[in-house]
């Protein structure tokens, strides 16, 4: 993945975080730069959790475990990002909305390679 694609993903994540902050009570972000920093922190925390516990118990996992881990990561992020405040309820609803967005906006490329000619 190129640097440009990483930057685009972080910017899209920051915009989603701003939308969640506008919709969910108990989920506040001071502005775009705080949301961008939150996107970076969420990515790093997700990577750490995935490295420690595996893909089945990570924010990227589907099901109730992935949902609860995502809510925990959102709640934990507020302690690393100035200008972000999240209640437990806000983290749960925010994880639900972010999960729904992730369902409709794929984050992994799905490239189908043609068969090699014989």
From TrEMBL:
Membrane-crossing residue ranges in chain numbering: 7-27, 33-53, 60-80, 86-105
InterPro entries: Phage_holin_4_2
Coiled coil ranges: none
Record keywords: Membrane, Transmembrane, Transmembrane helix
Domain of life of the native organism: Bacteria
PANTHER family: SLR0284 PROTEIN (PTHR37309:SF1)
The protein's name: Membrane protein
Species the sequence originates in: Marinithermofilum abyssi
């Amino acid at each position: 993945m190129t640097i440009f694609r990483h930057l685009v993903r972080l910017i899209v994540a920051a915009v989603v975080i701003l939308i969640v902050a506008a919709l969910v009570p108990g989920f506040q972000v001071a502005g775009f730069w705080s949301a961008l920093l939150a996107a970076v922190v969420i990515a790093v925390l997700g990577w750490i959790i995935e490295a420690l516990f595996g893909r089945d118990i990570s924010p990227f996992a589907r099901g109730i475990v992935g949902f609860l881990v995502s809510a925990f990561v959102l709640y934990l992020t507020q302690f690393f990002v100035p200008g972000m405040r999240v209640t437990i309820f806000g983290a749960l609803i925010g994880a639900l909305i972010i999960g729904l967005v992730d369902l409709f906006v794929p984050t992994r490329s799905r490239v189908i390679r043609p068969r090699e000619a014989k």
